[in-house]
Amino acid sequence: MAKEGLGLEITELRLGLPGGGAHSAQHGMDKNEKKRVFSEISEDNENGKISNDQKMQSKSQVVGWPPVCSYRKKNSFSEKLDGSKASKIYVKVSMDGAPFLRKIDLGMHKGYSDLATALEMLFGEALRDAESCEFVPIYEDKDGDWMLAGDVPWEMFIESCKRLRIMKRADAKGFGVLRSREALNGSLKNE
Amino acid sequence: MNYFPDEVLEHVFDFISSHKDRNSVSLVCKSWYKIERFSRQRVFIGNCYSISPDRLIARFPGLKSLTLKGKPHFADFNLVPHDWGGFLDPWIRALAKSRIGLEELRLKRMVVSDESLELLSKSFLNFKSLVLVSCEGFTTDGIAAIAANCRFLRELDLQENEVDDHRGHWLSCFPESCTSLVSLNFACLKGEINLGALERLVVRSPNLKSLRLNRAVPLDTLQKILMRAPQVVDLGTGSYVHDPSSEVYNKLKSAFQRCKSIRSLSGFLEVAPRCMSAIYPICTNLTFLNLSYAPGLHGNELTKLIQHCRKLQRLWILDCIGDKGLGVVASTCKELQELRVFPSDPYGAGNAAVTEEGLVLISAGCTKLNSLLYFCQQMTNAALITVAKNCPNFIRFRLCILDPIKPDAVTNQPLDEGFGAIVQSCKGLKRLSLSGLLTDQVFLYIGMYAEQLEMLSIAFAGDSDKGMLYVLNGCKKLRKLEIRDCPFGNAALLEDVGKYETMRSLWMSSCEVTLGGCKTLAEKMPSLSVEIINDTDQMEFSLDDRQKVEKMYLYRTLVGHREDAPEFVWIL
After folding, report:
1. For a Cys staple, B103 with which of A92, B64, B151, B476, CB 3.0–4.6 Å?
2. Cβ contact (<8 Å) for A76 and B342?
3. How near does any CA of chain A get to the CA of B174, in Å?
4. Structural domain count of chain A
5. Any idea what the CATH number is for the domain that residue A163 is in?
6. Quick check: A46 and B412 CB within 8 A?
7. Is B238 contained in some domain?
8. pLDDT in tens, B393-446
């Protein structure tokens, strides 16, 4: 099997203290008696640090663990962690009047309202400090056009968004830019 | 033996409501058995295969309320194949044919078909209450039948079921004449509903006390509903997203202010954290708060909310609350009795999680705590010992460390001592779930101290048969034992076969028991049903007695082997 060549025997589950002989009292299980439902599981090596990704990958192969009922699994986990593949989509975010730009990972958010909250956290102070000004979120898409955020479904948005800009509404006057998705728009309005 | 006429005894028995006590009463003598069975209205059947519908009907002709449980608990975690069993249909058909005036049906982990629901809705004129928990097999068409035909329906409660949503008009199926609803919970339905029909239903249900909406109900509908139903006691919001500076939100705020009776709050299936302030007025009186389906609520907004909930008795949250957040709970919720902390990230990447620190804080601040479900990143013996000292009143203690065999995070020792302290201190402990690195020692402690223990869940623990034996020999009140991935084998399984007759069921998967061992057990105990469940992956089950059994489920039964077992289940 390929994995033997990679020296991954150490990652076989054993019912014993981690690290094998380095600890007191080796308990029970013969190394050959692999637990049947595991393919691989990493144990925290006393010296080594197994990368988080590797940990996530191997743990996801344990059937029925953690013991969370399937209904809950489908409905409460942050969608970004479904299948443990979080795509990182970092885009620059600029805000009119703010001295520097920020970066945000679009893959970390589930939807527009979630994004709005995140933007608020990044620019909260600047949003508050600006003199009762309303803001409009726009983004640059793959074609280089500037689009109003909120029109297309979230999944489509994160695929085409290259950068974000929080524009003062005053600058958009006359363009009939009044409505985006309520949540996103509303959350960016200055209170 | 009777010094009183039957009517007097019956009247006395009326005051005895607990199932356990009524069962005891029926064992006293023949005459009490007879009086009890004719007066019995509520029956609880913990394993639907332990008895048959016919025998139930024969014994309790006055039956009004039936509770049935189907699949074993580990079915929740995908350890039981889909068509294993637990069908409602034969029960409904038998009851429908009989003269039983069924009024209430409560099901858990059963397979329910639309046909069954329709038959149910048409067969019992006085049917009042349907509660389905973790069931599957039905669609909204079945629910529509219930709505349409049960003229005196009071309760329709769907909790965490897998329902095929046909986006039908089930809500519109409640006739105009239906004004008796007290409780309506459809939070688990995924599809759109007719909002107008919902509002009209609420308006004509003056007794409505419990209402749990699904994701398809937007905030403005919630506001309208609350204006018409300020008497509601238990509320589950649907989608809780809106612009906090809007008119609708303002109206919602006033609506909440009028709802002085709300004691229980859940939902927030989609949530805009900045809209939570509308809820603050009802927080002061809340006794139950369930935010476990709201991963969008965390950090400051979450703790701010909790700080308003001084009377909270039960709290269900996600681990993104963090240890610090638990500290806020500990200092705010002095009346807390039950805490459930669920994982927001099942694979424990470590960012959003709680540790032993949070639990210790809770135990120090919430001394009335008696029920815990805690998914955490790590645990220590010291922490568990402290918790045991601070909270001796635990009835339910379920700890789940996301890494199933993780030792004490500080000392690297097994967690035997910590759990040992829990069972020693909590003399009333009825339910225990273990995790982390554990040796036979923890089972020695459990056998020695856990005298009231009724249910025990074990995973990846122990070294030898001794572990399981300590439990079987020591825990006299044990009813349900479920074990996965432990080195327990035939010696432990067969040492005291009579024990299983005193229990409801035993589940063992990925352990060391062999086919031969199971066969021996089945031979010796004809009153047990010993099922071997073969995963669909295994195309051939070898008949070699030395073969280890992947999944075994055994239970006591009065009616022999079930006849509805699928191909992959072999009943010995």
Report:
1. B64
2. yes
3. 27
4. 1
5. 3.10.20.90
6. yes
7. no
8. 999 999 999 988 999 999 999 999 999 999 999 999 999 999 999 999 999 999
